[in-house]
Design a protein that fits this description.
The protein is mostly helical. Helices cover 69% and strands 0% of the residues. It is globular and about 60 Å long.
């Protein structure tokens, strides 16, 4: 019953996209954060198993949009052909693998292969139709991240019980009641840390310097409790760049940073366990760095054997075990190549690079009021962070969220089919940038 209600709600949100794309995009982010994929199994959504709810919102919305506005989206694709040529290679190659591999999975194929490009297309169209709508999406990501950070810290300190403990104990193989890292309502601590990292970059849209420092401190504390060294380092870099770009006077910046440091110091003194896990990892990572190096050493030769067709979704885990690795390769490129094929995997990574390149060009050639402040900084740091763990090789909605963030950097296309021009006559003109 609950699953049917959820499905009807998703379809209703998708239908609202015909009036405004901002609502379904924001709901997709909320759904991605609020409910872990492990808990979706318990909802009993008809015929959909455990696909992340944010992915379902994106897929439903994309279906509605393509059914009613196919020429518009074809124009968007043609405006940025190189991104979509390599994405077509990714989709075609991965689709062939999903049909011929023994471990095929339609739900995994939809979540990892089809939904991410669809999310990018939707956010790009949102930017073309409403610059304010895309800015609202960026602020929504920051707001959702802040709420998730508070909840994650409350759960981590024991103030609030883990709401999805039962679902994790049933469907998450590494979960134990004594799990010590901050998790919040997400599928893994590293996914939580990635959300915080992206939100730090998007704080550029916040006007108050005090609010930027206070919120970024909250995000960095959450990253520390999630015990992600990569996200913490990148978060500090992003915050530094953010302060420099805002041209905050040195004395003011020093005061803000000092206030944040003192606040963090008080928190750590009151809760010394806050940094125990991260400090232990910095001092001795239990061989995780060596494991990653070994994963590359044995994973690259294995990936080279899957030039066009992969071994099927999630097959990289069994391959890793057969090669003597204790967990996984901890490398999304290698894992994607083993699962879906080397050429499709390289195409997927290349598409991300093209999307970032398009964003960099837009900063120079597109009027600033239609670009989301901090989006390119957030997308760049987040893309680097994804390379430090399995990330988009896993089903957790992270691949879709990645392309939502990348979509915030996309220069909007204003060359619409004749039937669509009347729809946007009231919107301010925006220069088009071709990639």
């Amino acid at each position: 019953m609950l699953g049917s209600v959820v499905l009807v709600g998703i379809l209703a949100v998708a239908a609202c996209s015909l009036r405004s794309l901002a609502l379904p995009c924001i709901v997709a982010v909320i759904a991605f954060v609020a409910v872990p994929e492990a808990a979706v199994y318990t909802l009993g959504v008809p015929g959909l198993g455990g696909v992340n709810l944010g992915v379902l919102v994106v897929m439903a919305t994309a279906t509605v949009q393509v059914l009613f506005r196919a020429p518009t989206y074809l124009a968007d694709v043609m405006a940025r052909p190189w991104i979509w040529i390599v994405l077509a290679v990714w989709i075609a190659g991965a689709t062939i693998t999903n049909f011929v591999a023994t471990s095929s999975s339609p739900s995994t194929w939809a979540e990892l292969v089809v939904a991410p490009p669809a999310a990018y297309l939707l956010v790009q169209r949102l930017g073309a139709e409403s610059a304010a709508g895309r800015a609202l999406l960026a602020r929504a990501i920051v707001t959702v991240a802040a709420l998730e950070a508070v909840l994650a810290l409350a759960i981590w300190t024991g103030v609030v019980d883990q709401p999805f403990a039962e679902a994790h104990s049933t469907f998450t193989y590494w979960w134990t009641p004594e799990y010590a890292r901050a998790l919040g309502t997400m599928d893994s601590s590293l996914v939580l840390a990635g959300l915080m990292l992206a939100a730090i970059g998007l704080l550029a849209s916040v006007r108050s310097n005090w609010m930027v420092i206070a919120t970024s401190a909250l995000f960095l504390v959450t990253i520390a409790t999630a015990e992600s060294r990569g996200a913490l380092g990148l978060g500090l870099v992003v915050l530094t760049v953010l302060l420099v770009r805002r041209r905050v006077p040195f004395a003011t910046a020093l005061g803000l940073v000092f206030a944040a440091v003192m606040t963090l110091a008080v928190v750590v003194l009151v809760n010394p366990e806050l940094t125990d896990g991260l400090s232990a990892k910095l001092e001795d990572d239990n061989g995780s760095a060596n494991a990653r190096v070994r994963g590359i050493a044995v994973g690259v030769p294995a990936a080279l054997e899957t030039t066009l067709v992969g071994n099927g979704p999630s097959s990289s885990f069994s391959i890793a075990r057969s090669l003597g690795l204790a967990t996984s390769f901890e490398n999304p490129v290698i894992m994607t190549a083993l699962d879906w094929g080397l050429l499709p995997a390289l195409a997927f990574v290349t598409a991300q690079l093209f999307a970032l390149r398009s964003g960099f060009r837009a900063r120079v050639r597109v009027r600033g009021d239609v670009l989301v402040p901090g989006a390119l900084l957030a997308a760049s740091a987040y893309s680097v962070y994804l390379l430090t763990f399995s990330s988009y090789a896993l089903t957790s909605g992270i691949a879709v969220f990645t392309w939502i963030v990348l979509g915030l950097t996309a220069p909007p296309n204003r060359e619409l089919p004749r039937t669509e021009r009347a729809l946007n006559e009231s919107q301010p003109a925006v220069a088009e940038v071709r990639s």
